[in-house]
Specification:
single chain; alpha+beta
């Protein structure tokens, strides 16, 4: 005990004698923030929904104008518009005829409606080549997206599948194509195969869809901001921005930020060490 006391006293004397001189040379300034969390935005979409891709672009434009975008966490979630869709439906390679047959309209009516959609997509900077789109069930794509989310690649997966379907006309149920797209996202072939075979990823897709319905979603895209506000459909960037600003203002009040500017120097800590 006596030796321990002498050690502490010696440390204190050493600090008093030499600490002041070194103090000036070792000053550093750091900022510590108690606000480590972010405001969450959840986006439900189907990779074969044309308005979901348009909604994604509008959201990105709104977020680019938002001054606190670094404090926004975006999570993409799955929602199948038609879970019962066959992998190879009737008129798979003719979207105009596929929709006409389903909706009870003429081929010309369907094509005219899709031309309006193509122009809408162009207005937000997207190229829709619907004449070569291959209609299919979206479950496999969603399974891969769910796996990609675990690696922080959810947004990249969404963009990759949207582009592959609407612009490139790729078959999103073809195994080789899915592996190629998975690699573009940043996944390995084994990881893609895991996503397509493990039941867990089907459960995740179905869980997302059920969650959206419990929140009141009747279709997609469906945006939920801070679990307080919902945006249904592909709204304009300015409308999305206003919702972000309103939500963030409220979120800030609930997550008060304390910023301390700290000057570091020699200290004696509670464990008896002085350095």
């Amino acid at each position: 005990m006596k030796n321990n006391s002498l050690t502490v006293i010696f440390s204190l004397l050493f600090f008093m004698a030499y600490g002041q001189e070194k103090h000036q040379r070792q000053l550093t300034k750091t900022k510590n923030s108690t606000m480590e969390n972010k405001m969450k935005v959840e986006i439900w979409s189907d990779i074969m929904c044309p308005f979901c891709y348009i909604g994604k672009r509008n959201f990105e434009k709104a977020l680019a104008q938002f001054p606190n975008k670094e404090l926004i966490e975006v999570e993409w979630k799955s929602f199948q518009i038609d879970p019962a869709m066959p992998e190879v439906p009737k008129y798979q390679d003719d979207m105009y005829m596929f929709v006409a047959d389903r909706k009870g309209m003429t081929y010309e009516q369907s094509k005219a409606r899709h031309q309006d959609l193509i122009q809408y997509a162009e207005s937000v900077g997207l190229e829709y080549n619907l004449d070569k789109a291959l209609v299919t069930n979206s479950m496999k794509g969603h399974r891969i997206i769910q796996f990609a989310k675990n690696k922080g690649l959810g947004e990249k997966a969404e963009e990759t599948f949207f582009y592959a379907y609407f612009t490139q006309g790729k078959n999103l149920n073809d195994q080789i194509t899915l592996i190629e797209l998975g690699k573009e996202i940043g996944l390995t072939e084994n990881e893609v195969n895991t996503a397509l075979t493990e039941p867990l990823y089907v459960q995740k897709v179905e869980s997302d869809s059920l969650e959206a319905q419990t929140l009141g979603a009747k279709g997609v895209p469906f945006f939920v901001v801070n679990r307080k506000y919902a945006i249904a459909g592909a709204q304009q960037p300015n409308d999305i921005l206003q919702t972000l600003e309103r939500s963030f203002s409220e979120w800030q009040k609930e997550n008060l930020q304390t910023t301390l500017e700290t000057i570091h120097g020699k200290i004696c800590s509670t464990d008896g060490e002085c350095n």
